[in-house]
Amino acid sequence: MTxxxxxxxxxxxxxxxxxSHEFTYPLFMAYLDIDRLEPLMKVSRLAGYNCxxxxxxxxxxxxxxxxxxxxxxxxxxxxxxxxxxxxGRIFLLTHLRYLGYNFNPxxxxxxxxxxxxxGMVVAEVNNTFGETANYWLGPQVEVPAGExxxxxxxxxxxxSPFMKLGHEYEWTLTSPCDRLVTECINxxxxxxxxxxxxxxxxxxxxxxxxxxxLLAFPWMTAKVIGAIHWQALMLKxxxxxxxxxxxxxxxxxxxxxxxxxxxxxx
Length: 266
Fold this sequence. Notes:
This protein has helices at residues 37-40, 70-80, 207-216, 220-237, and strands spanning 5-15, 21-33, 47-49, 55-57, 90-94, 97-98, 106-112, 118-126, 131-137, 142-143, 149-154, 168-173, 179-188, 191-204, 252-253. With 266 residues, it is an alpha+beta fold. It has one domain. The strands form two sheets. A twelve-stranded antiparallel β-sheet has the order 10-11-12-13-14-1-2-5-7-8-9-15.
């Protein structure tokens, strides 16, 4: 099993309809054992748990009651969604809070069984309207894909103002090892309209590796939110139709407001 670490690589988005649009950005994400978050964040003086550092993990940056352990929040949400949370280790692939700022378009919880086999993935998705939703990816939506995990399910959360609800998702994820790949495809009326691919390589969770990565990506989360709004402007200039938000109260709000990522969270 791959232990806590960093994954460094690229993210590519491709839009095929109604106009073509493509970009690729370098990025990195932290991959952390959720039962060891506090000791893991002591790896360097530049890192901290629930306190301001260059790289910080804050409990309130993820769904649910931040006073509860993250595993308990997952267990409660699993029960609410009628699924069984695997009994093994759980690792969170996410953006930490860098220089006080956090925004996570999507975080992945990789849930292993007691035999260290990947049993389920939870995708915690956030939009720029200050809203969040979890997709529980397990046997109920899984399709055969060899060694990888592939899921097909309906898009039920408003993310991009340039993409409709009602799409069908097809997500393929590798089990984290020395390499990690996620591929997300959007179908509309049976046709591919969008895909995103993240390809990353593993680095161990050490102070040296964290320092080296922070020097290469000093303010990762600011870059993420800046790129989101820049690409939205590009789509607007290409005259891609805007899809209206369903309205307040439809989706769950995030527990914290982030500049540029909470336009509707009042």
